[in-house]
Amino acid sequence: MLLINKIDQEKAVVLFTEGDRIDTTNLKTIKEQLNPIINDISDANNCIESVFDLDNINFIDSSGLAMIINVYKKLLENDKRLVLINVNEMISNLFDITKVNTFVEVNKR
Amino acid sequence: MSLLNKLTVQSKISAIDVLMQWVSLHMFPLLKKKEQEDTLHLVIQEAVVNAIVHGNKEDESKNVAISYFLKDSDLHIIIEDEGDGIPKKAQKKDEKSITSKDMLAESGRGIILIKHFCKEVNFKKNILELVLEI
Questions:
Q1: What residues contact residue A19 under an 8 Å CB cut-off, 6+ apart?
Q2: Which of A75, B53, B77, B117 could form a disulfide with A80 if both were Cys (CB 3.0 to 4.6 A apart)?
Q3: If you write DSSP's letter for every residue of B120-131 in order, what string do you get?
Q4: Can you tell me the distance from the alpha carbon of B71 to that of B89, in angstroms, rounded to the nearest whole number?
Q5: Measured between beta carbons, which residues in chain A are less than 8 angstroms from residue B112?
Q6: Of B39, B45, B95, the CB nearest to A61
Q7: What is the pTM of this model?
Q8: Which residues, 6+ apart, have CB-to-CB distance to B19 below 8 Å?
């Protein structure tokens, strides 16, 4: 799973480019790649928003949701927002059921 | 009612892909709508991960067994581990009782999702039965 990090002024876009899921089967690998990126975004003075582009993601389980929560909490500690874009219908539904969308902005495809 | 098939896997995360391939081969053809595949995938994966991680503590000497049968228009899926069963407090979780603390919790969403998508969820010690209308 390769993540491309693009920083554009006040926004950092993270695109999941390989694989179509964020779940128990690949979470360890994703976290290894994502953690340094999130640390950089948290430390960046001019960056106020981290955007996760989930256009390639078709499946998330509860461990994937937990990872997103943890990213949100980490960013919040440094006054950064987390926004999800290109979220498919099923995944958007999961955010709704578990109320994750209460504090993370979720934008559907 | 007939027992159609059963698979047993070791309690390791890498077994999940194999198990889900078996699910798609044996259970997906039973579904009436393709849209149900994602739901079935999710609830089974949640139950199996729970069995592997919490039930069997990822002890590879312990197994998780999955079996299924059809009864009327319902698909019954049985997931069995070698643990002590899901604690009563966790069994009671559902989306109506989510608190602010739950929303930001490290875990606990699996049961909520399972209950949302299943017609019925039965806890019997180390056995979890999911019932889906298909």
A1: A1, A26, A56
A2: A75
A3: EEEEETTEEEEE
A4: 30
A5: 62, 97-98
A6: B45
A7: 0.93
A8: B7, B9, B44, B48, B64, B66
Please answer yes or no on whether A98 and B13 come within 8 Å at the CB atom.
no
Distance from CA of A94 to the nearest CA of B (A): 8
Q: How far apart are CA A85 and CA B110, in angstroms?
A: 23
Q: Beta A3-8 vs A21-22: how paired, if at all? A: unpaired
pLDDT tens digits for chain B (134 residues)? Answer: 455 589 999 999 999 999 999 999 999 999 999 989 999 999 999 999 999 999 999 999 999 999 999 999 999 999 999 999 999 888 988 888 888 778 788 778 999 999 999 999 999 999 999 999 99
- Residue of A23, A58, A90 lying closest to B45 (CB–CB): A23
Question: What sign has the CA pseudo-torsion B97, A80, A24, A59?
Answer: positive
Q: Which helix (H) or strand (E) holds B90?
A: helix B88-91
Q: To the nearest 10°, report the CA torsion of A41, A45, A46, A47.
A: 20
Helical (H) or strand (E) element with B67: strand B63-71
Tell me if A24 sits within 8 A of B45, measured CB to CB: yes
- Asked if B16 and A24 come within 8 Å (Cβ–Cβ), the reply is yes
Report the Cα B63 to chain-centroid distance in Å: 14
- In angstroms, the separation between the Cα of residue B108 and the nearest Cα of chain A is 8
| Pick from A24, A70, A73: CB nearest B49 | A24
